[in-house]
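Request:
You are asked to prepare a plain-text protein record giving the amino acid sequence and the backbone structure tokens, at your earliest convenience.
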Amino acid sequence: MKIQKYSFGVGDRFCHEGIAQLSALLKARREFGVDFVPVWNKSNREHQIVGTEPTGTREEADAAVKALGYTGQYFVDADHINLNTVDRFIDCSDFFTIDVADYIGKSGSMEERFLPAIREAGRIYRHIAEKKGEGNFVTEVSMDEVDNAQTPEELRYILKEIAAEKIPVQTIAPKFTGRFNKGVDYRGDLQQFEKEFEQDLLVIDEAVKEYGLPDNLKLSIHSGSDKFSIYPIMGRLIRKYDKGIHIKTAGTTWLEENIGLALADPKALALAKRIYVNALTRMEELTVPYATVIDVDADALPSPAEVEKWDAETYARTMRHNQADPLYNPSFRQLIHVSYKIAAELGEEYYPALEAHSEVIGREVIENICDRHIRRLFAE
């Protein structure tokens, strides 16, 4: 099983936007002539918070493919798994993101810092291969959720040891300098990011030749959601070196769902507002698990009384990631990003609202993925 050159992780908290997500990638094919393989991804943490099972992601993907008559490659990603969580994903996934960031040491030689993590990746890979059979799934190794970016020398060492573990890695997610906060743009030095991204592309190219790794090995970007300022950089460099890329997104679809509800009708707008007001009262509970990947300025958050006066357009413009809009509020957007737990708790209202307003929501999802994300990657 070999993933194609370009792939896009379309995460979906509530497994309702599969058709819209696939439609966005098909629109990108029509408009930019680029085939993006859809990879539906959902982590164990998200399943636990929402109260869902990995089989639901598989069902969503299969249903979208059938509904649109899609005949290309597609995958279901067991996102950020480890030995403790992987087994519930075995039967329904064919893409496994092996997350070993917790095993990376903070000091010492490269061997002392990285070898324990790579050995753990080998154990997890072999466990999956024993269950599914070698060659029946795509393997990604993720090392992005750490404090410091890996240097080119460190990435070369990591890939060398991955090859020694005989892990047929097809995508690798290193850490880059800068903040990759959920649902908002990249924060950091763009020149430094460009330097690191280009160096990593070249290291991968050399590692494939030197260590016998799969020839389609490519970089995976976490979190790719809404990092608009780095998309032109990545697009230019993957074209320059004729390389593939995997971009993983998740929460951005849930945010577009929220916007779509706000625009749908007054009752759905009231539901979206209620999620926000509840989130304000539970902000610590919701933000602590995501503390390293969000920056919410509490002083910038509107009060419940203020939000109650908003019409649908004001709500949507405050949420929508358009940095040229004076109403856009990144703190508001980030708080909603981590508040999907509240929507899950309102499931008896929330799920019917998604189904009733699927057309409006779908337009927001398609525009977000195709026009705000992929267009930036391939526009000259």
The CA atoms of residues 180 and 234 lie 15 Å apart. The chain has a mean pLDDT of 97. Strands lie at 6-10, 37-43, 75-81, 95-99, 138-142, 169-173, 218-221, 245-249.
